[in-house]
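Propose amino acids for all 271 sites.
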């Protein structure tokens, strides 16, 4: 190789190593941006509004979890299908092998269900938000305490009831159930000093309500079912509206409970 050829090769090699103008410009821009970030974010501490806190990209939904849920559902469907198939096979072809296979598979699923029930109960014990028995106890001792507290609350509501409510009692002389219900209504009304307006639907008297009135269209106006006695309705003297309590024979406790719920508890607040 001649000296002139050697010089030409070296020139080409040096040209390849030299950075291109575009690359140099990109490098300069990146350096300037880094310098600006350092000035505003580190030295002056301007913070979020100068985009010093880089936005975090939104997390992608976990496909593994979705696949696992779908797989669990499919697995449960497969277990149910297998159990039905083994049962049908054991019924249609009751060989010792088929019956044994069904019993074994069923037992395995019963064990699985028992495990689920056990874990369910332990989870409720350990999380008061899940334990419904705290609101409505089922144990004998706790249930008695809850019932006593509820009875005291009910009695407090009933003691104030006459300040706002009166009672309409629809009966018939020929009604056997009315003969049972009339003394119950009388005793509850006397205990809580409720005013009772007894309405005879057939014009006949009542020995428990001698000052009765004969019906003259009150039931349709109150939205009651015609022809059904005995029937009880509370009258709200402030809202000027009837509140049907019920039909037929009710015990004194049931009657008071219904009045208590209808006048002091919103629907869904006591269950």
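Proposal:
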């Amino acid at each position: 190789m001649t000296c002139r050829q050697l010089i030409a090769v070296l020139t080409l090699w040096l040209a390849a190593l030299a950075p291109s103008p575009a690359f140099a410009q990109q490098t300069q821009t990146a350096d300037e941006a880094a310098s600006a970030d350092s000035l505003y974010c580190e030295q002056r501490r301007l913070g979020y509004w100068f985009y010093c806190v880089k936005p975090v990209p939104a997390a992608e939904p976990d496909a593994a979890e979705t696949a696992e849920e779908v797989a669990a559902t499919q697995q449960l469907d497969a277990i149910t299908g297998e159990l039905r198939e083994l049962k049908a096979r054991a019924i249609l072809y009751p060989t010792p092998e088929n019956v044994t296979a069904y019993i074994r598979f069923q037992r395995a699923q019963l064990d699985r269900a028992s495990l689920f029930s056990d874990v369910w109960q332990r989870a409720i014990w350990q999380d008061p938000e899940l334990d419904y028995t705290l609101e409505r106890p089922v144990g004998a001792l706790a249930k008695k305490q809850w019932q006593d507290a509820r009875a005291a609350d009910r009695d407090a509501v009933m003691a104030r009831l006459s300040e706002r409510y009166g009672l309409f009692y629809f009966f018939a002389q020929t009604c056997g159930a009315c003969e049972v219900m009339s003394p119950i209504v009388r005793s509850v009304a006397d205990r809580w000093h409720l005013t009772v307006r007894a309405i005879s639907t057939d014009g006949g008297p009542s020995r428990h309500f001698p000052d009765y009135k004969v019906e003259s269209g009150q039931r349709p106006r109150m939205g009651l079912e015609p022809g059904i006695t005995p029937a009880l309705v509370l009258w709200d003297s402030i809202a000027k509206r009837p509140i049907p309590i019920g039909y037929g024979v009710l015990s004194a406790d049931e009657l008071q409970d219904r009045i208590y719920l209808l006048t002091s508890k919103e629907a869904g607040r006591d269950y």
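The chain is about 55% helix and 10% strand. The longest strand covers residues 165-171.
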